[in-house]
Write a structure and sequence with these properties.
The protein is of the alpha+beta class. It folds into two domains: about 5-160, no CATH class; about 170-220, no CATH class. The protein is built from nine helices and five strands. A hairpin with a 3-residue loop joins strand 1 and strand 2. The longest helix is centred in the C-terminal third of the chain and has 24 residues, at about 135-160.
Length: about 220
């Protein structure tokens, strides 16, 4: 029998990849996808929790989370950005300006009750994957449904700059929030909000001892 990752990748290719391709993702594999769209890039990533997390929490190491990202190409470009063989930027999900994750809907409580920490037993952002791969079809099917029902609408909202700015404004006050809001407001031509958030970002940068170089704010 193959590894847990290999066992899960097969149904992911069957159930998740077609949804990504239908949504316009040009480069996909079982766990990753990129879609280049004018001034932004959609990023999709499924990653395992790994052995360290497993040892600390009790989740099987092959259990997975599914992450969504939107990267704005008009933002300052971070160093070390990978490009594909056509010269297109290929950002990692964690470097995206807008981020979200899919939520598990399938009931896995009978498996999760063996976790000692009650907070871990209540998590809905991880899919429990049996080490022997017994439930990989169930997991892939639920990820596909979550991508279709939540993920694709989220990509649409986060790609509309006014909606994206609203999502950012609803977040916790911090340097990244203010810098991101300033970036979007400037792109939208909203000078009042741009100047307000730019000033808030500069004030916060000075407060925490960070550089006031605006090109570095979204890379912290």
């Amino acid at each position: 029998m193959g590894s847990t990752s290999a066992l899960l990748n097969k149904p992911l290719r069957t159930l998740v990849v077609p949804i990504l391709r239908d949504a316009g993702f040009q480069q996909v594999d079982a766990r990753n996808g990129w879609s280049w769209r004018n001034d932004l890039i959609w990023v999709f990533n499924i990653r395992s929790v790994g052995s360290y997390f497993s040892g600390v929490t009790g989740w099987p190491p092959g259990s997975v989370c599914a992450w969504l990202g939107v990267f704005f190409t008009f933002a300052p470009r971070p160093g070390g950005m990978k490009v594909d063989d056509r010269g297109r930027m290929r950002p990692a999900e964690h470097s995206c300006h807008m981020r979200d994750h899919l939520v598990r809907n399938v009931d896995q409580s009978s498996r999760m009750r063996r976790l000692w920490n009650s907070a871990e037993r209540e998590r809905t952002d991880i899919w429990w994957v049996q080490p022997d791969g017994e439930n990989v079809d169930e997991v892939a099917s639920d990820i596909a449904n979550a991508l279709r029902d939540h993920g694709l609408p989220w990509y649409a909202r986060a790609s509309d700059l006014e909606s994206a700015l609203g999502l950012v404004e609803a977040g916790h006050d911090c340097l990244v929030k203010f810098a991101k809001a300033a970036l979007l407001a400037r792109r939208l031509g909203d000078e009042d909000r741009w100047r307000r958030y730019d000033a808030l970002a500069e004030t916060e940068a000075r407060r925490i001892g960070h550089s006031v170089d605006r090109d570095t704010w979204l890379g912290i």
